[in-house]
Amino acid sequence: MPTTRPHGVKWLTWLGLLLAACWLAGCTTAPPRNPDDLCSIFDEKPAWHTAALKVQREWGAPVHVPMAIMYQESSFRADAKPPKRYILGLIPWGRVSSAYGYSQALDETWAQYKQETGKSFVSRDSFADSLDFIGWYMAKSRQINGVSLWDGYGQYLNYHEGWTGYQRRSYTAKNWLPPVAQKVQARSQRYASQYEGCSQRLTRRRWLW
């Protein structure tokens, strides 16, 4: 007598195949449609606002600064990677650094973050984890180099050059870097102005949920 598979089992099989295909294809959360407007970002992705407020509570980093740093580092792309390195301009030979994910955190710095915070099960392609990493890094920059958490310029120079590099003023040898840090500062200020006009509305919506 022939047997038939229950519809529920068939549905679960298809769901499993779909999830597996998504994983193999590297499915990630799409960047926000309007990355130049912080209110629009949080309207589109409410969980990002929740994560940003959590970072503010834990590390003291105002919402707009880590978001501006993340934009500069990855344009809010979960799978962002640095460019490849080539030998003789033709042969691919790895990437210029181990930076990866929303925060473009290096392997060794990410490992330090995990060790110091005890947050073992974190991922660089998680928005919340990456933003928390940036908040942690900013707090360390304030502790080590006395840079205000509201100073997008100084915080980005620390983030890019490292705490020791900032102390040695290594950025002065890179003519292109201070203007980039100025862009981060300008974006953080623009984000701050935008957020001032929508923060109460976004917070009320969180409580309504």
What does this protein look like?
With 209 residues, this protein is mainly α. 60% of the residues lie in helices and 4% in strands. Strand 1 and strand 2 form a beta hairpin. The longest helix is centred in the C-terminal third of the chain and has 20 residues. The N terminus is likely disordered.
Brief overview, please?
The protein is mainly alpha-helical and 209 residues long. Helices cover 60% and strands 4% of the residues. Residues 1-5, 20-27, 84-88 and 92-96 have low confidence and may be disordered.
Q: Determine the N-to-C terminus distance.
A: 52 Å
Which overall shape is indicated by the principal axes computed on the Cα atoms? globular
Which percent bin holds the helix content? 55-70%
Alpha-carbon Rg, integer: 20 Å
Number of helices: 9
Strand arrangement, major sheet = 1-2
Q: Main β-sheet: number of strands, strand sense, barrel status?
A: 2 strands, antiparallel
